[in-house]
Design brief:
Blueprint (H helix, E strand, L loop, with lengths): L14 E8 L2 E9 L13 E2 L5 E5 L7 E8 L2 E9 L14 E2 L5 E5 L12 E8 L2 E9 L14 E2 L5 E5 L13 E7 L5 E8 L13 E2 L5 E4 L14 E7 L5 E8 L13 E2 L5 E4 L17 E7 L5 E8 L7 E8 L5 E7 L7 E2 L1
Antiparallel strand pairs: 1-2, 3-4, 4-5, 5-6, 7-8, 8-9, 9-10, 11-12, 12-13, 13-14, 15-16, 16-17, 17-18, 19-20, 20-21, 21-22, 23-24, 24-25
Amino acid sequence: MRGGTDGTCGSGCGTIFRLSHDAKGWHEATLWSFDLTHGAYPSYPLVGDGSGNLFGATDVGGALGLAYGLYHRAHGWHLRDLHNFGGGRDGAQPRSSLILDAHGDLYGTTVSGGTGGSGGGGTVYELIPSGRGWAEKLLHRFAPYTDGANPQAPVIFGRNGSLYGTTTGGGNQACAAGCGVVFRLTPNGKGRWTESVLHAFDGTDGASPVAGLVADPAGNLYGSTNEGGHSGCYAGCGVLFELTRTPHGRWSFGIIHYFMVKTGGGPSGNMTFDSAGNLYGSTVIGGNVNACPQQLGCGVVFKLEPESNHRWKYSVLHVFNNSPDGALPSGVVMSANGKLYGTTIGGGSLGLGAVL
C-alpha cells in the first residue's frame, strides 16, 4: 500500500536494514524507519562513501520525492534530507539510485519534472555539498519525444568525466510514448553539459530500458530493455544490447540476446560483470510460468559468457518459484568471493519478497 489519505503509509513506509554475518549465520538490524515527511518506499540501491555514510532517493515523500543521506554517528544513525524535489525545474520523482564522484558529489535522475512542470521529461542532477547543506545543480532537462524522456535508471561515469544513462521513453515514436534512448552527457569544462543520443530504440531492437548501463574495461556499454524485441511478453520480452566504440569515435549498437518467456523476459534490474568478463543479471518474468501465471513466470537469474565476434552464450542460473525462494528479482550484485546477491519484490515464505 502506498501513502494513505491521512498522510500515513498504511502498512509502513519502509526501512533501511543491514545484514551482518557471523559464525551463527546472518542477522538483520534496522538502521532507519521512513515516514512520508522524510521519504517513503525506498526501492532503489544505496551508495556508500568512505566514512560509512549511505545515500539514496525515494520518489515518495517530501513534496515530490527526496534525496537523503544516512549518517553513521557514535550514538547511532541519523537521516538528513539532502534535497526535496518540488516538481518544477528541479525535477520530480527520483526513481534511481545515486552515484558518487571523487569529490563527494552525488548524481541521479528524476523521472519527471524539469521542463513543463511535474509532467516534464525528467532530469539528470548533481547534488554538491555546500556549507552545512547540499545544493542541486541541473545537468540536463529532457525535452519529451526528442532527446529521451523519463529516466528511471542511474547514470554511470565514463571516460573524460562523461555520464551515460538510459531513458524509458522519448526518442523514436514507434512506441506510444517513445521507445527510449541511450544518452551521454559531456562536460564542457565551463560548468555546462551537452547531451548526445547514442541510440534511439524502435521496438524491434528493444524498448523501454528501465535498468541502467554497465561498462567493461574498454569503455563499451551494456544494458537491457524491459520490452521490445521478440513477442510473447505483452509488449515484447526485451533484449540485451551492447554499444561498442569504433576507431572513429562513433558507437556501434548490437543486440547480444533476445529474451523469451521460457528463458526469462522483462529485465529491469542492474547487471554486473565478473573478473572473467561474464555478465550477470535477472528478469522479472519468464521461467516457471506455473508459479507466477499472472506475470508469465516469476523471473530468472541469467549469465552471459562472451564468445567470438561479439557473440555471447546465454544460460539460466536460477528459476524463481515464488515460494520459498521469491519472485520478481530486482537485479544482482557480486561479492569479492564471486557470489551473487540480490532481492526479490515478491514471493518468499510470506509473499512479501526475499533476500537471495
